[in-house]
């Protein structure tokens, strides 16, 4: 016969109620057993001791998983204390250090839900973004994780613009944007090789309009020149080449675009009514 362990019951009234219920239901089987033995339940450890043990494992021993156990024990034994709040954030960081990103995100999101107004909420949000960022896959694969990283890092900048994490978030955001732009370029090149010029233009257009601050935009403008020249839409080809030359005059991609336009008997010439010209004027690049 098994008896429900009492180590998880924290408060005397709850313990007494549980044991009373057990006594009523299992009285015939528990004859002679002392439910109130003082050694049945281990005493809670001080919160600061558990917390510092977690820090020791994290900093000195480099054992983030052991640190997590200590920090989570703080929350279990002292759920409404300030130590519990600190331990929850450190548990999230420890999960991040051990590469358990899903667990890190879960703990950090819980921290933000419970303590949204604290100064450390910015760091919790940054941990979420960093967890997704560290999982950004190769450009040939699905970029769902990159999108998650992008959204989470944007939250850091939007909600906590003056925090010390906003600058780092912007740097990671640039890399994530470049990754997404690279994915669009990969698909666009595929369509271009298949002579599906309309499909290619649609992909390169995303880069020019949505990711024009990334390093991919130079090639996107050159590829647009290629696709429009192939379709005989020379006005747009001229504009793509002109905008590329105006913003990136030393780019090797501009040299290619210039030669393409010249080979067709045209000159790089910007049409201010073109969507390409409007896209760049929108942020003041052209």
Using the alpha-carbon principal axes, give the shape: elongated
CATH superfamily (homologous) name of the largest domain: Tetratricopeptide repeat domain
Distance between the termini: 81 Å
Overall strand count: 0
CATH top level class name of the largest domain: Mainly Alpha
| Total domains | 2
Structural class: mainly alpha
Order of helices and strands: HHHHHHHHHHHHH
Q: Please work out how many helical segments DSSP would assign.
A: 13
Mean pLDDT: 86
Report the CATH architecture of the largest domain: Alpha Horseshoe
Largest β-sheet summary: none
- Uncertain segments are 1-42
Give keywords.
286 residues, Serine Threonine Protein Phosphatase 5, Tetratricopeptide repeat, elongated, mainly alpha
């Amino acid at each position: 016969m098994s008896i429900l362990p009492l180590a998880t019951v924290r408060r005397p009234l709850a313990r007494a109620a549980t044991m009373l219920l057990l006594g009523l239901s299992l009285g015939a089987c528990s004859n002679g057993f002392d439910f109130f033995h003082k050694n049945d339940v281990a005493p809670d450890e001080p919160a600061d001791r558990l917390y510092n043990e977690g820090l020791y494992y994290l900093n000195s021993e480099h054992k983030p998983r052991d640190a997590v156990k200590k920090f989570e024990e703080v929350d279990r034994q002292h759920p409404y204390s300030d130590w519990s709040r600190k331990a929850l954030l450190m548990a999230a960081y420890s999960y991040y250090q051990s590469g358990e990103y899903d667990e890190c995100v879960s703990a950090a999101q819980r921290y933000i839900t419970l303590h949204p107004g604290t100064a450390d909420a910015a760091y919790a949000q940054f941990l979420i973004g960093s967890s997704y960022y560290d999982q950004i896959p190769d450009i040939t694969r699905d970029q769902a994780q990159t999108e998650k990283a992008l959204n989470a890092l944007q939250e850091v900048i939007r909600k906590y613009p003056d925090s010390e994490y906003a600058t780092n978030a912007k740097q990671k955001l640039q890399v994530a944007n470049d990754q997404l732009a690279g994915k669009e370029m990969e698909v666009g090149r595929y369509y271009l090789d298949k002579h599906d010029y309309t499909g290619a233009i649609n992909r390169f257009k995303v880069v020019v309009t949505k990711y024009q601050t990334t390093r991919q935009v130079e090639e996107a403008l050159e590829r647009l020149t290629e696709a429009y020249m192939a379709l005989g839409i020379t006005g747009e080809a001229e504009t793509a080449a002109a905008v590329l030359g105006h913003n990136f005059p030393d780019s090797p991609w501009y040299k290619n675009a210039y030669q393409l336009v010249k080979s067709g008997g045209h000159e790089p010439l910007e049409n201010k009514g073109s969507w390409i010209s409007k896209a760049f004027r929108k942020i003041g690049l052209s």
